Amino acid sequence: MVGDDIKQGIYPVKEAQALADKQGLDLVEIAATANPPVCKVMDYKKFLFDQKKKQKEIKANTLKMVTKEIRMGPNTDDHDFNFKLRHAIKFLQEGAKLKVYVIFKGRSIIYKEKGELILFRFAQEIEEYGKVEQLPKLEGKRMIMVVTPKNPGKK
């Protein structure tokens, strides 16, 4: 048995429980597989509260990855392209992940090469802000490319 105000040693279960009750604390089994099993005298409710508090703190400190989407067509004009490019750069500087895709409607699917060229040009333009995680890939009527920020969270 171990604890703050208790002499470490081997105690019978009833005696250990009595010592814990005398202090108004709980007897908690720490290592059941040890020979003999190790128990600790502590305030179990306070221990659980501290555990939850630590978990919340860890969760709050983790960086949440946000995914932003940018949609274009195979015939996207230069002005629209530059407009979307500026938004993409802003999103990457904020630390968001980008999902850039070219959507093909109707018979425009025959211009797959145009879509691929637009995405490669897009990747080349934002090269200093982010790196391409997934190269352009055709999924149904969408050609998708994923870009991650180079330095997430930097403003």
Overall residue-averaged pLDDT value: 86
Largest sheet composition: 4 strands, mixed
Order of helices and strands: EHEEHEHEHEE
Number of helices: 4
Shape type = rod-shaped
- β-strand percent reads 25-35%
Q: Helicity range of the residues?
A: 25-40%
Poorly predicted tracts of residues: none
CATH architecture of the largest domain: 2-Layer Sandwich
| Strand numbers in spatial order across the main sheet | 4-5-7-6
Helix and strand composition category: alpha/beta
Distance between the termini: 53 Å
CATH class of the largest domain: Alpha Beta
Strands, helices and their partners?
Layout: E1 2-3, H1 13-23, E2 26-31, E3 38-42, H2 44-61, E4 67-72, H3 78-93, E5 97-103, H4 112-125, E6 130-139, E7 142-149
Parallel strand pairs: 1-3, 4-5
Antiparallel strand pairs: 2-3, 5-7, 6-7
Tell me what you see in this structure.
This protein is of the alpha/beta class. The strands form 2 sheets. The chain has a 4-stranded mixed beta sheet, with helices on one face. Strands 1-3-2 form a 3-stranded mixed beta sheet. The mean pLDDT is 86. It is built from 4 helices and 7 strands, in the order E-H-E-E-H-E-H-E-H-E-E. Helix 3 links the parallel strand 4 and strand 5. The protein has 2 domains: 59 residues, Translation initiation factor 3 (IF-3), N-terminal domain (Ubiquitin-like (UB roll), Roll), CATH 3.10.20; 83 residues, Translation Initiation Factor IF3, CATH 3.30.110.10.
